[in-house]
Amino acid sequence: MRPYRTEFTRALVDVGRARRQHQPPRRQVVIVGAGIAGLRAAERLRERGFDGSIVFVGDEPHKPYNRTPLSKQLLAQTGRLTDLRLPVYRELDALWRLGTRALGLDLARQRLLLPRGEELAYDGLVIATGVEARHLPGAPLWSEHVWSLRDLADARGLSRRLALGVRHVAIVGTGFIGCEVASSLRKRGIEVSLIGRGKALMASAIGGKVGTLMTRVHRRNHVNLLLGRNPVRWGTADSPASDRTPAGVGVRIWLDDGSRLDADAAVIAVGALPAVRWLLGSGLDISDGVLTTASCHGVVREGTATGVVPSVVAAGDVARWPNLMIDATPRRVEHWITASEHGQAAADALLLGPGQAPPFTPLPRFWTEQFGVRLQGVGRPGLADTCRLAEGSPRALEFVACYLRAGTVVGAVGCNAGARLLEYADLIGLPLHPRPELIGSLPGPVPAAA
Q1: Which residues, at least 6 apart from 94, have a Cβ–Cβ distance to it below 8 Å?
Q2: What does the pLDDT read at residue 335?
Q3: pLDDT value at position 441?
Q4: Which of 38, 47, 372, 435 has the most crowded Cβ, counting Cβ within 10 A?
Q5: Among residues 144, 123, 57, 50, which one has the least CA distance to residue 93?
């Protein structure tokens, strides 16, 4: 795709000009991405009285659905497809272009580029394309024995594979998705081996101390933990002859400690990348997602010059913005609840413009349930340099932990704590002075060997 350099230079505006020149979209808003952020953006547009056209462009063939059950109820066979339905709170009167992949963006002409040379004009654009599964170098790209789990097609394909009598599944990745899949498969009596580079599960999100407790929960439920290790070579039953596995072995994984693991199938859950490749050459800053202002407006960059595009907003997992509740550093947040709120804020920002739209300052919230243990979190625990027990008993798996950075609370995690966690949400941004007897009472990391 050729860049529109002359037009792009004219499209580069500073914040002051954006404020003076902003005109609310009157005719057509295009929403790229048919997920929760895009859906809530459309609802908010109608709620605010926008009566122009709304067009969804989504590469999946489905209207927005709930992704959270994919690694939980659906794989554990405790849920149904009806659990994926999302409530729609407003009559949208929208045009749905499903199964259509966006190929590019011409900012100056306000055109979305589609397959077969089609261009779709917009007065306002909401970028809500979410994320795509991160590929693990060396892993097979196309195999009936190796899966990721990002969308409904992945969940259906993996479920079909499991139905063929799979007895042992290898999972690469020890974040939320990998651990939830492990829990779901163990409920079905399937043997699970969980491979990860760290010493504790989910440590990048909830810290090593709480991650250590969840590591012990998985061990007690007979998950084979291969921690501190990394895959270096793969073979599958449908690989070329040089890497094909013996009869009866679906996938073979060689690890960097010299060991080897055989399984019937594998799931790769090593995180996600923002879906921004279609924006290459557009002028938008797409380093680790679509960079936006605190009010959700897209940022363009040419050399050292930056500017704001009033007609473009971004929301959900694909957006990188400064949450001023935490600090001024732009970051992405991959939480379902935040994506829903982000879509609403982006729609407001599109209507109000950069001069009037308030900053989007949500309190990130997340949850996971594994082996009957429910973790709920608020804020950004992954930014902390210290974790302190606030109340409860780690031994009984009923507690609240506070996460601090330079002495200031940046997050909290509750384990089977219910509504008690909400009391700590108000502490975010404030210094915490825990009781001396609680300091250091959470256990440290566990050994890497299973």
Answers
A1: 42, 54, 55, 56
A2: 92
A3: 52
A4: 38
A5: 50
Chain segment 161-194, per-residue pLDDT in tens: 999 999 999 999 999 999 999 999 999 999 999 9
Distances (CA, A) of 22 to 19, 29, 349, 350, 354: 6, 15, 11, 9, 8
Q: Which residue has the tokens 């982000």?
A: 342
Question: CB of 270 within 8 A of CB of 173?
Answer: yes
Is a pLDDT exceeding 70 seen at residue 2?
A: no
Evaluate whether residue 146 is within a structural domain: yes
Q: Which of 368, 357, 372, 163 is nearest to 269 (CA)?
A: 368
What lies within 8 Å, CB to CB, of 446 at 6+ separation is: 199, 200, 212, 215, 216
- Whole-angstrom Cα distance, residue 387 to residue 380? 12
Task: Take residue 232 and report the two structure tokens written for it.
Answer: 């270096």
Range of the domain at 382: 372-438
Nearest CA to 140 among 263, 268, 277? Answer: 268
Q: d(Cα 355, Cα 349) in Å, to the nearest integer?
A: 9
Q: 212 Cβ partners below 8 Å, 6+ apart? A: 200, 442, 443, 444, 445, 446
**Residue 367 forms part of a structural domain:** no
> Does 363 fall in a domain?
no
pLDDT (mean) for 308-325: 96
Q: What is the mean pLDDT of residues 381-387?
A: 94
CB-CB contact of 174 with 196 (8 Å) = yes
CA distance 35 to 373: 28
DSSP H or E stretch at residue 26: none
Instruction: Identify the H or E element spanning 75.
Output: helix 73-76
Domain boundary among 230, 247, 268: 268
CA 52 and chain centroid, separation = 31
